[in-house]
Amino acid sequence: MPDQLDQPVTRSRSRWMRWFRPGSSRSDGFGRFAEATARFMGSPKFVLYMTVFVVAWIAANMLLVKINEGAAWDPYPFILLNLAFSTQASYSAPLILLAQNRQDDRDRVTAEQDRQRAQRNLEDTEFLTREIASLRLAMNDVATRDFVRSELRDLLEELLTEERRSREEIVGEIVEELSEETDEPESRSSPHSSSHPPRSTHPTHSHSTRPQGD
């Protein structure tokens, strides 16, 4: 099983690896050393230290040459300094490459985790899309908010129209009852007037007209 570079090694696992797989622990330690070296050589502090060292080296050798030619340990053209620079470059290049390889491994693990996470997110998105589509299909058979509002509005209008009709009917019945009550006294007074007709106080005399003779 390959080591997971993104997770720290536990103490029991490191002990087991030290006893049964010594090469892995050594390579991991050397890899950390290479990363630390490459990180330090890529910092401004290393450039400053190297500049101070070179200036001090050259200045000390030039002063010693002026004082005594045999006292200088690396006179001009500073062959020992060039040899030191070559040795440093020959060792720093593999260390930097090793650090880059370890960083590439980390990036590969991170990219694999990102790919797996993206795959899970895609699967979750597809699942949610299917669920939303099924819900939309199911909602076609279910009353929506607008449909319920329209039905309630129609029902309210029907209730209002029925209430108006009932009020009109009640008002019509009341008007009919009032008209019947006003017609009853008139009907009661009309028979008395027809049974006893008014009598004239003055008697009428009939006069017969006879022809008068000559």
DSSP helix count?
5
Report how far the terminal alpha carbons are from each other. 176 Å
Task: Tell me the overall shape.
Answer: rod-shaped
Low confidence ranges: 198-214
Topology:
Layout: H1 11-20, H2 22-41, H3 44-67, H4 79-139, H5 145-195
Helix pairs in contact: 1-2, 2-4
Question: Which key phrases capture this entry?
Answer:
214 residues; mainly alpha; 5 helices; 0% strand; rod-shaped
Summarize the structure.
By secondary structure, this protein is mostly helical. It has helices spanning 11-20, 22-41, 44-67, 79-139, 145-195. The longest helix has 61 residues, at 79-139.
What does this structure look like?
This protein is mainly α and 214 residues long. It contains 5 helices and no strands. Helix 1 packs across helix 2 and helix 2 packs across helix 4. The chain is rod-shaped. 1% of the residues are buried. The C terminus is likely disordered.
